[in-house]
């Protein structure tokens, strides 16, 4: 069924019409209908259907690109943000887009903690149809890229009737973006070019998203020429042009591969991983060089326990860290010392225990994510050597995402993501702030570890008040990095080199290392929409 879907899709790789782009995001298992860009289980919509005001390119240091907004300006003390909007924009249902839609969206986020990833506290006012002023109770420079680049503008005339925006699945999405929803099936759905798009109808007339069984199925689809773009590992990626004729690849560092832990017993987390000593023992029990070789074809790189993205944030790396970078080799003695000091005793079977409970943990992973599965299989062998037993548990993406959101896991492998601008502030605000989490059983987004730390929260509050580039920021970066190394709610593995394979024979206009107009990952939103708009069928 899947092969037929791909082969008949009309992609450049699959034959037939060349104006359909077939993509694979890594989705393993059926798609669940959800086009709400504010939902933790959305499947698409950010940038493609619902647009931000500006596009901030984290792949290159460039000025923000005007989208629904055309200009913005802060007042002198960073408490007021004035935004000019594009005129003559229509929603895909024909209604006119105005400043009231922007005000409605910002108010909706402010009133719903589940939507509010960085504790946005602004008050938005429309001064006319094309101007919005956002006032903040204190300087809020760091809210700029979030408000301007990560707030997906929703149509007031529809969403004012949505009672619970955090759980709405938005089955018939209406947006201002370059695409509208076409057909939807559990194994594939399509976005169709919006002929009335303010920026001009895209040359790619249709994007078809496929659900496959995992990374190996993605490799098989590349070999068959039935997909045009995927973000995921393939064997011998350095020889892609020889092994997969017509395809090219680009790999860039972006996300930070980590073991997520449900870390906070006070919020309902259960298991030995709620003990920081256990988390730190796992950190020292890793042989990252071996994991990189066996699971990631050595395309990943060192990672800092302070979660600054290296090498991008080299200037912000704290001198107060014990380990500036996570050790690439295993330290069995250090791991044992941490566990013994915390009251764990090694049993006759070599596994540590405390209060009669052996140190055994389950780690959840998406079935078909072969690189992560290999990483966990390798890690499980390594951790046995330090007296900890982990058991990988493979789930469908939907089950895994639900467990991640609700905190119903001990360990889980995933990547910690970056924010809308090249600054670790956003990673900290998303994944480590008390405002971005919730008790176990409730959906947290995206502080899935349930980490809550007053030092981190206070440092984030101070960072929000100071503009990027101000040297006074470093003391707050230092404070955060020290706490993250100390408590490790997300246990650092490696900085992920994100591999992308694309059909260069069928479509032109892909991002290259010489022209990184967006970060090239099919699941990176809104970057993927920038790519879709830039692509042209070959020969056109």
Automatic annotation (TrEMBL):
Family, similarity comment: Belongs to the bacterial solute-binding protein 5 family.
Cited PANTHER family: OLIGOPEPTIDE-BINDING PROTEIN APPA, PERIPLASMIC BINDING COMPONENT OF ABC TRANSPORTER
Name under which the protein is recorded: Peptide ABC transporter substrate-binding protein
Domain Solute-binding protein family intervals: 64-435
Membrane topology type: Lipid-anchor
Keywords associated with the record: Signal, Transport
Compartment(s): Cell membrane
Organism: Lentzea aerocolonigenes
Classification via Pfam families: SBP_bac_5 (PF00496)
Any GO CC annotation of this UniProt entry: ATP-binding cassette (ABC) transporter complex
Gene Ontology biological process terms in this record: peptide transport
Matches recorded under InterPro entries: Peptide/Ni-bd (IPR030678), SBP_5 (IPR039424), SBP_5_CS (IPR023765), SBP_5_dom (IPR000914)
Main location: membrane
A GO MF term: peptide transmembrane transporter activity
């Amino acid at each position: 069924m899947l092969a037929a879907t791909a082969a008949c899709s009309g992609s450049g790789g699959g034959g037939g019409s060349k104006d359909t782009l077939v993509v694979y995001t890594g989705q393993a298992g059926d798609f669940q209908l959800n086009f709400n860009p504010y939902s933790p289980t959305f499947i698409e919509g950010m940038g493609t259907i619902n647009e931000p005001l500006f596009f901030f390119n984290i792949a290159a240091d460039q000025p923000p690109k005007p989208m629904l907004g055309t200009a913005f300006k802060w007042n002198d003390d960073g408490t007021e943000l004035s935004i000019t909007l594009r005129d003559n924009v229509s929603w895909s249902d024909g209604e006119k887009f105005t400043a009231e839609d922007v005000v409605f969206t910002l108010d909706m986020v402010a009133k719903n903690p589940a939507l509010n990833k960085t504790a946005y506290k602004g008050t938005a006012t429309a001064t006319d149809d094309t101007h919005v002023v956002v006032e903040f109770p204190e300087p809020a420079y760091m809210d700029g890229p979030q408000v301007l680049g990560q707030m997906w503008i929703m149509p007031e005339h529809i969403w004012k009737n949505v009672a619970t925006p955090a759980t709405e699945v938005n089955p018939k999405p209406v947006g201002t973006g370059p695409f509208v929803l076409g057909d939807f099936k559990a194994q594939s759905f399509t976005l169709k070019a919006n002929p009335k798009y303010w920026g001009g109808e895209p040359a790619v007339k249709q994007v078809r998203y496929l659900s496959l069984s995992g990374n190996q199925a993605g490799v098989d689809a590349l070999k068959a020429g039935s997909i045009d773009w995927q973000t995921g590992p393939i064997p011998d990626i350095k020889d892609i042009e020889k092994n997969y004729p017509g395809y090219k690849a680009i790999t860039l560092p972006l996300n930070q591969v980590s073991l997520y832990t449900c870390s906070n017993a006070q919020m309902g987390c259960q298991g030995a991983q709620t003990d920081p000593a256990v988390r730190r023992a796992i950190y020292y029990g890793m042989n990252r060089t071996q994991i990189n070789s066996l699971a990631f074809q050595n395309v990943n790189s060192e990672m800092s326990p302070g979660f600054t993205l290296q090498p991008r944030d080299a200037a912000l790396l704290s001198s107060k860290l014990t380990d500036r970078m996570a050790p690439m080799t295993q330290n069995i003695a250090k791991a044992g010392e941490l566990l013994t000091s915390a009251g764990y005793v090694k049993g006759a079977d070599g596994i540590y225990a405390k209060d009669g409970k052996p140190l055994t943990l389950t780690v959840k992973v998406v079935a078909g994510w072969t690189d992560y599965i290999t990483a966990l299989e390798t890690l499980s062998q390594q951790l046995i050597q330090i007296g900890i037993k982990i058991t990988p548990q493979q789930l469908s993406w939907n089950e895994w995402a639900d467990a991640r959101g609700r905190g119903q896991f001990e360990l889980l492998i995933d990547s910690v993501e970056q924010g809308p601008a090249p600054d670790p502030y956003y990673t900290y605000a998303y994944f480590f702030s008390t405002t971005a989490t919730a008790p176990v059983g409730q959906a947290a987004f995206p502080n899935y570890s349930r980490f809550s730390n007053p030092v981190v929260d206070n440092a984030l509050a101070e960072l929000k008040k100071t503009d990027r580039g101000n040297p006074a920021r470093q003391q707050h970066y230092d404070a955060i990095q020290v706490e993250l190394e100390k408590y490790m709610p997300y246990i650092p593995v490696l900085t992920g080199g994100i591999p992308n394979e694309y059909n260069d024979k069928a479509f032109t206009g892909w991002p290259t290392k010489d022209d990184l107009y967006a970060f090239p990952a099919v699941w990176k939103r809104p970057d993927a929409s920038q790519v879709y708009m830039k692509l042209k069928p070959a020969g056109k």
